[in-house]
Design a protein that fits this description.
Layout: E1 4-9, E2 12-17, H1 27-42, E3 48-53, H2 76-85, E4 90-94, E5 97-99, H3 101-108, E6 111-115, E7 119-121, H4 135-143, H5 145-154, E8 158-159, H6 160-165, E9 171-173, H7 177-191, H8 210-221, H9 227-240, H10 243-258, H11 261-276, E10 292-295, H12 299-310, E11 315-318, H13 322-341, H14 347-355, E12 357-360, E13 371-374, H15 380-393, E14 399-402, H16 409-413, E15 422-427, E16 436-441, H17 447-459, E17 463-468, H18 475-492, H19 496-506, H20 512-519, H21 521-531, H22 537-541, H23 544-551, E18 564-566, E19 572-574, H24 576-588, H25 598-618, H26 625-635, H27 645-652, H28 654-667, H29 677-685
Helix pairs in contact: 1-2, 2-3, 3-4, 4-5, 5-9, 8-9, 9-10, 11-26, 12-13, 18-25, 19-25, 21-23, 25-28, 28-29
Bound molecules: (S)-3-Hydroxyhexanoyl-CoA (3H9).
Subcellular location: Peroxisome
Domain 3-hydroxyacyl-CoA dehydrogenase C-terminal: 472-566, 601-686
GO molecular function: (3S)-3-hydroxyacyl-CoA dehydrogenase (NAD+) activity; enoyl-CoA hydratase activity; isomerase activity; NAD+ binding
Length: 692
Amino acid sequence: MPVVTSSLSGAVRTVLIDNPPVNATSVDVRRGLCAAFEEAAADPRTRAVVLACAGATFVAGADIREFGKPPQDPHLSEVIALVEACGKPVVAAIQGTALGGGLELALGCHYRVAGEGARMGLPESTLGVVPGAGGIPRLARLVGVPKALELATSGKPVTACAAREMGLVDAVTTDDPRAAAQRYAEDLLQRGAGPRRTRDLPLAPPPAGYFDDIRARLAVSHRGQEAPLVCVDIAEQSLLRDFDGSVAYGRERFRERVASPQAAALRHAFFAERAATRPAGLPEPDAPVRRAGVVGGGTMGTGIAMCFLNAGIPVTLVEQNEQALAACLRNIGKTYESDVAKGRLDDAARQRRLDGLRGTMAFEDLRDCDLVIEAVFEDMAVKRQVFASIEAHARPDAIIASNTSYLNLDALAEGMLHPENVVGMHFFSPAHIMKLLENVRGARSSPQALARIQALGKRLGKVAVMVGVSEGFVGNRMLSRRARECYFLLEEGALPEQVDRVLHDFGFPMGQFQLNDLAGLDVAWRARQGRLDRLSERERACGILDELVARRKRLGQKSGAGFYRYDAQRKRTVDPEVSALIEQDALRRGFLRRTIGDEEILERCLYVMINEGARILEEGVATRPEEIDAIWMNGYGFPRYRGGPMYYADRIGLPRILARIHAYAEQVGAQYWTPAPLLAELARKGAGFYSS
Ligand code: 3H9
């Protein structure tokens, strides 16, 4: 089947792209478009053209799978030039998403009609590349340089209404966009309106100082990312060159970017996330979740309840007593009010969400829920009791999920009448904001229950990765190894600010000790108390958390002091008292503190995680390295432009990592630094986690 076809209706020819799944501008589409527009130009019966797409979406971009391969003619910018040059008016009919090369194509059309649900954007920089087919010079001519760069540097799409307001589309329709575009074209013919080429519009310069200002802002908001700054270069050059010169400049910068390590890592991130959220061997889900129950209205429970409400799923929330229930309903109400105040939500949507919420103290009220998730205190006995109460009152086929972050799901399911209904759904705090969801398959979870929670994860807008039972599952298990190493580094000579700076410079939003302060040192301390019997002698003896939490009541940001000191705005400063405590603790325990280099800190933090990641793969807790990468990029701030820990490991080279693991085994101790057999085996073969 040809991917581009044409048909004539009256004097209007529709050129239709049909290239599932997202109508990307693959080479066949580019060639097909050239042929179709040449035909339209030559055909005397054709007086106007509608450019439309089959399926749910307009062109969602260039074909990412072609990136990194030898280019094939024609280039997309040449196709768009041909469309724009057409002597007959060309109307784009936009439904779904017009992204990247798709929006560039629409900008080359003379008019744009969009369905009201359509979204348009230039997400290239999120893939480490830049609009390479005239997107920036054309968009800047239509909406001004600042708005064009807002789209290109954020990568975020705008709605059809916002696009109309800024002058990006000519009409928004509630009708079928193709039919509306046909009418629009007929109207143009009736009015005698001809082509209106974006390239011919004047380009107004932005206010003085604008480019310096946006570069400075991007250096902070997009720290470490190269592509957004190249978008700024393209906009700046568009003012200095003629139109064709600026398109050529953007094309050249695209060519350079597409071959960059950041672009390769971000492409990996794109495909890894898609692979990671589709576990093999699950059936199609047989029923959606129509009502969810949440037991426990603390921070996690309220966040989880809001996830459901935000996705349009009504929630029954169970709390123990009236006071606790009132507090959590109040918290949810307040969060939505603040969303309205910040313009993120309108009043009607806020009301709809609140209408979906039912608070109760009776487990009986869970009887109409398709899924109930417990988010109570992290204690096996407490959770077991809650599970039993849920099972006693919920429907026999309801899925019963635990939000535990460390406890053994299979032990939790013991004694349940229907262990096949038991699963884990590990949300990350704040649950209504964080993208990651670790869905946990218990030994006895049914494939259908797992299929349903995977589908639910997608509906909640999460990156839902299925993992196996293991202490801390995937993310927290690797994090706990990194944390251990960070505490060791404090003993051996580093200070929190050095460790945190190294992790921040690598691209994490914050370092280990900042993270501890944010989450609450009491949380880390309690987790440590619960695991004391499983810690090594050295870990048990490490007294810094006990000193900070138990003796000095430094609980982190919330108490104004933790590893750092915080002012009323939560601005962080280094606290000499903490440095002294760390030094005293090390001295007391006989450590000879030394100057530790940044490279050692980085290696120890990352390689210990990578080694644990290899074990996680060996044990089948994760089945593919993509799952680990997706988890770390979406739940722990691993910089996307480095592709996740397992991808990063391949870039460094497993033989080098193995050699360093051996060196740290000598230096720190083999009990912490024994190479995972999988890592050792891959390194020996000269392979990687992603290459054989
Ligand atoms: C660009 O355009 C550069 C230009 O300036 C160029 C100049 C020269 N290519 O996400 P989904 C696949 S850069 C190839 O699950 P959804 C995807 O892998 C590009 N494949 O669906 C998946 O395949 P599979 C700028 C693509 O409904 C399937 O489609 N464009 C592409 O949740 C379904 O995807 C972008 O960055 C592609 N461009 O979301 C847009 N896009 O089933 C990237 C998707 O085999 N795409 N696939 O696993 C998206 O953001 C989302 O896919 C979209 C749909 C919102 C469109």
